[in-house]
């Protein structure tokens, strides 16, 4: 060991000791390093702590040094291969794997499992030069060379052919490698921009032909009689402008097309896995809500993923939003969530002591199993040269290595205590990809923004908020894709697009005895994006027992009285309900007509409840809480603001998401299994503190 390695080892031991506390001996450290040793990461009772690792940035000596640090810290998993296509295939058809073989051998010897990423994004420079159809063409017709990551047209046939070939070669080589336990595809897929080449237009036309069949059907769906825009033959179809302007119907189909392209690419790669490496689960680092394009993950997740996985970079100011995002990526999976990238430092952010550990426990309570720090080495070049990982730029371990080592030690203990969590939520919220896009149109002459003034994402989170506060798990799903009969309550906040499958799912669920709460802005347009020519809510007026066509906006936040309490909302939008079979539970207090605010209709064996305003926690909180006892929805532990908690195997886990101390009250005397300290009725949690009480 040279002097630099000895110095690094001393720094690492200090960092780990600081994180794990006094008295953690070398013998104990060796025990904490023990690998999980289970070939199948889907097995019960396993938690993985590790990192994302880009060996292409490191020399062989540095790689050996890095792996020694990972082993000593007790890391059990790494993710590798991503962002490295041209390292595996420097020229078309010339594959080089020996360098990666050697690293896998070292990882296996260190007891570290590997997620193998098929690096389909970004595509190499040689591919762009030889196959210019992979270049992005912007909506102005300008061809763009790959100046930044993910500027790749993944709909191009040559791209699709070559990325599949890459997957076949890599999986054939590594399907039975003892280090490899899972496979992922196309890092952050969904983030590439839309492209407007002639090839893209031809593929879009082919997609429209398959969807609509005839020009007449297309004209009807797109309402082309408006503004003299009828289409006489397919040659007249142009790609809609994703950056505007353009009508809603075409913009919606544009996003559907690119979503289908992305899903087809993922499905194609998963087809390779099924044939070549069927024993490896698919666990891709997805970005379905990427602002550039995204894709309809909630209506397709089971076609290409075994585990819901994402890059987890939560905002400490918005733990509710972080919880919503995790539950969205979990979708309808019965398997835990994997954080293929997990917050450590970040871009321009060196890190905050205790913060990553707090978010890891937060993740545990939201069904997470895997926590891979992004990234191991602080980046020295490229767009992320000011991104700070676990090792400093000179290769020395930062205090963050010690914090992740502490997580690895604690999570090894928690594996025997009901983690990763396996239960399923009692409540579900509908999240619609199509509503998200159609209510957020690109710039241009469009009345949508004048009508839909309350942000869709905010309304989803407003519906989520009461349950988050009450420490109740909530599934975030597309109810046209995932069965809902087992949920005790289903919420539809501002479900603006009401297609036939969604309406059918709601109708059947309520008829069979389910309870649904739907809010204003819902069921206004059909699957083409056009307003219903029938009474609103479209396709569901009889289920809810009312008509809701007129709407107005109050200059002041609207009020209503519910169960003897005056409630004040945060939005002025409200709808005037005309009940038929529905009964009125509450009326607005400061609107001219004092019209019904909340109605309930018995339909079949179930109940359909309508809130005649935008989704807002001030109204939904009291409403859903009034249903808990009737629906046997179990509340979680009572906690002060900023603290979340769950009961897992008769132990209560508390997580303080704030950076200030908080006191939690509970009944009786309990012991914290992490510290072995007893607490009698109260628990003082430091900023970012956690406790597991039994």
TrEMBL record:
Q: Which InterPro entries match?
A: Beta_galactosidase_Trimer, Class_I_gatase-like, GH, Glyco_hydro_42, Glyco_hydro_42_N, Glyco_hydro_b
Name the EC number(s).
3.2.1.23
Record the organism: Dyella lutea
The residues covered by the Glycoside hydrolase family 42 N-terminal domain are 52-413
Gene3D superfamilies xrefs: 3.40.50.880, Glycosidases, Golgi alpha-mannosidase II
Q: Which family does it belong to?
A: Belongs to the glycosyl hydrolase 42 family.
Q: Taxonomically, what lineage is the organism?
A: Bacteria, Pseudomonadati, Pseudomonadota, Gammaproteobacteria, Lysobacterales
Signal peptide positions are 1-32
Q: What is this protein called?
A: beta-galactosidase
Superkingdom to which the source organism belongs:
Bacteria
Q: Does this entry carry the keyword GTP-binding?
A: no
Provide the GO MF annotations for this entry: beta-galactosidase activity
Which UniProt keywords are present, listed alphabetically? Glycosidase, Hydrolase, Metal-binding, Signal, Zinc
The Beta-galactosidase trimerisation domain is annotated at 426-633
List the CDD domains.
A4_beta-galactosidase_middle_domain
* Chemical reaction(s) catalysed: Hydrolysis of terminal non-reducing beta-D-galactose residues in beta-D-galactosides
């Amino acid at each position: 060991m040279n002097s630099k390695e000895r110095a690094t080892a001393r720094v690492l031991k200090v960092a780990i000791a600081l994180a794990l506390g006094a008295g953690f001996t070398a013998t104990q450290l060796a025990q904490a390093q023990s690998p999980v040793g289970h070939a199948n990461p889907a097995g019960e009772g396993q938690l993985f702590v590790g990192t994302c690792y880009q060996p292409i940035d490191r020399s062989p000596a540095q790689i050996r040094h890095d792996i020694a640090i990972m082993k000593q810290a007790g890391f059990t998993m790494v993710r590798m291969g991503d962002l490295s296509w041209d390292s595996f295939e420097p020229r078309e058809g010339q594959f080089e794997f020996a360098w990666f073989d050697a690293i896998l051998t070292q990882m296996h010897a260190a007891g570290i499992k590997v997620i193998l990423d098929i690096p389909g994004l970004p595509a190499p420079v040689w591919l762009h030069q030889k196959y210019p159809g992979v270049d992005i063409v912007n909506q102005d017709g300008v061809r763009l060379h790959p100046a930044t990551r993910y500027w790749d047209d993944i709909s191009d046939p040559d791209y699709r052919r070559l990325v599949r070939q890459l997957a076949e070669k890599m999986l054939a080589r590594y399907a039975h490698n003892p280090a490899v336990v899972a496979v992922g595809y196309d890092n952050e897929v969904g983030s590439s921009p839309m492209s407007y080449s002639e090839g893209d237009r031809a593929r879009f036309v082919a997609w429209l032909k398959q969807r609509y069949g005839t020009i007449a059907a297309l004209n009807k769906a797109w309402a082309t009689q408006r503004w003299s825009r009828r289409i006489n033959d397919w040659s007249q179809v142009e790609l809609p402008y994703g950056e505007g302007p353009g009508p809603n119907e075409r913009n919606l189909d544009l996003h559907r097309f690119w979503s289908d392209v992305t899903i087809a690419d993922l499905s194609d790669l998963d087809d390779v896995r099924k044939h070549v490496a069927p024993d490896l689960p698919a666990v891709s680092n997805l970005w379905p809500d990427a602002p550039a394009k995204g894709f309809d993950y909630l209506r397709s997740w089971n076609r290409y993923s075994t585990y819901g996985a994402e890059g987890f970079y939560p905002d400490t100011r918005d733990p509710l939003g972080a919880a919503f995002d995790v539950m969205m990526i979990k979708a309808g999976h019965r398997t835990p969530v994997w954080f293929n990238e997990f917050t450590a430092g970040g871009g321009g952010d060196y890190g905050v002591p205790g913060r990553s550990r707090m978010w890891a426990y937060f993740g545990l309570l939201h069904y997470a199993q895997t926590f891979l720090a992004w990234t191991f080495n602080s980046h020295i070049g490229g767009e992320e040269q000011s991104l700070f990982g676990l090792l400093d730029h000179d290769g020395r371990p930062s205090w963050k290595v010690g914090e992740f080592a502490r997580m690895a030690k604690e999570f090894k203990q928690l594996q025997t205590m009901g983690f990763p969590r396996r239960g399923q939520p009692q409540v579900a919220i509908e999240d619609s990809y199509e509503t998200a896009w159609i209510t957020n149109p690109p710039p241009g002459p469009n009345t949508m923004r004048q009508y839909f003034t309350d942000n869709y994402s905010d309304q989803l989170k407003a519906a989520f908020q009461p349950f988050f506060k009450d420490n109740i798990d909530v599934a975030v799903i597309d109810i046209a894709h995932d069965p809902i009969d087992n949920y005790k309550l289903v919420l539809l906040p501002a479900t603006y697009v009401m297609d036939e499958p969604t309406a059918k799912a709601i109708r059947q669920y309520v008829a069979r005895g389910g309870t649904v709460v739907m809010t204003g802005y819902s069921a206004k347009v059909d699957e083409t994006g056009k307003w219903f020519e029938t009474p609103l809510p479209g396709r569901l007026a009889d289920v809810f027992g009312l008509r809701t066509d007129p709407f107005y906006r109050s200059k002041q936040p609207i009020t209503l009285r519910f169960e003897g309490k005056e409630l004040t909302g945060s939005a002025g939008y409200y709808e005037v309900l005309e009940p038929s079979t529905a009964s009125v539970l509450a009326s607005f207090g400061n609107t001219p007509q004092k019209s019904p605010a909340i109605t309930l209709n018995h339909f079949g064996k179930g109940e359909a409840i309508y809130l005649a305003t935008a989704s807002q926690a001030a109204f939904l909180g009291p409403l859903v809480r009034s249903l808990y006892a009737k629906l046997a929805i179990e509340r979680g532990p009572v906690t002060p603001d900023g603290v979340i908690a769950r009961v897992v195997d008769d132990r209560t886990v508390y997580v303080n998401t704030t950076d200030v101390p908080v006191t939690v009250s509970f009944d009786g005397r309990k012991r914290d299994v992490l510290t072995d300290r007893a607490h009698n009725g109260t628990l003082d949690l430091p900023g970012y503190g956690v406790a597991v009480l039994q």
